[in-house]
Amino acid sequence: MSPEPIGSNEEVNLPKYAQQQIEADKRRAVLTEQVRRDLETNPRYKEFFGAYEPNSVKSFIDEYSWRKVFYLEHGERCIGSEEDDLLRFVAEGAMHLWNIQRKKLFNLECLWRAEKIELTGVEQTWDFRYWEHHLERCPFLPLITDEEVEAYTDYVLSGQLEDDDMMSWESLRFLSDTDMEEGPQYPEWYAFYDARFDTPSLFNLPDIRGEKEAFYRRLSYKEKEEKRNEMEKAASPNEDRPRIGYHDLDAIEAFIRRFEDKKLLRYFNAVVRYNMRHEDEEIESAIEMLECSDEPVPIEASGSWRDGLIKAADNFHRKKLSEGVRTAYREYLIRRESGVFIEDNEKDDFMNAIRKDVKEEIIKGRILNGEPPDLNF
């Protein structure tokens, strides 16, 4: 019997904040889709979008849809409201808990790419990217253990914690191939895990399977590019309209000024100012962190008050994050016992689409190479 997604079983005893988060995600998805539909179908935007290259318009609509919802949801907070500090650390702990599974998935991917193991649910390398986004219900990952949680909280408190610490196999391989002087930046958590559990790094195993797939995908891509170039020349021989940048804040502001109300413009400007003001401002971040404290935070003697303040904030953050990880682990055990999993259907559709495209590219490449249309190679 397959696990039942959260939201369909009201008797599951989830914490209130987790229920609120699920409902908020659902509302956010609905609002984003409403904005997207309006942008795609409302004639009031036709003249504006008509001035730009069509493919870039689609990207702009995708980006602006979630941005508008974000501005409406967080704009007021950026102007002056305070976030809930308790939920902040619990939510952060929940995200960090999955770094345990990411490391185990990384090890399994290294072994699979080297053709040393087979895994249920994995036909191609891109399947690992899918399971990275569905760690809680990955069929071949061992469950998180008390020992692993203890190791991760020790890692958090050790002072080795890095931002954006976890990397996919592809990211590490890219760094390995491009940064020849320093080599790949193996994540600190991965190294900490290897040392704690005596699991040697598997990253240097040969990528036998990946190289095979890359060969077939190159054949497929070459043919696809040739056909695309021919179609583009036939469809729009005189296309000279500029592309609209979907990350261009000036373009976003111009769009808001033309089509949205003054409140959204106010929120947009507040979010932009907030991001600029908080960029690389360590002291302000440290003070903000310490203001979350519900207990005395010691400040050790240091060469400067600035360094002492930053270190005190960092120590406090690590302590609270380690507590958040333990809270998230308790909730994880409840969900495992109940057979209930948090699902992300929108992300599921997106990742499945990529998996399908990659699989089709590989099979197409095999056909072009005179081989059977399957993944048995």
Description:
Helices cover 66% and strands 1% of the residues. It has 377 residues and is mostly helical. It has a two-stranded parallel sheet. It starts with a strand and ends in a 9-residue tail after the last helix. The relative contact order is 0.15. The N terminus is likely disordered.
Overall 3D geometry?
Answer: globular
Strand segment count: 2
Strand order of the largest sheet: 1-2
Number of domains: 1
Characterize the largest beta sheet: strand count, sense, and whether it forms a barrel: 2 strands, parallel
Helix content: 55-70%
Number of helices: 14
Terminal Cα span: 32 Å
Brief sketch in words of this structure:
This protein is mostly helical and 377 residues long. It contains 14 helices and two strands. Helix 9 crosses helix 14.
Q: What tags apply to this protein structure?
A:
about 375 residues; about 0% strand; two-stranded parallel sheet
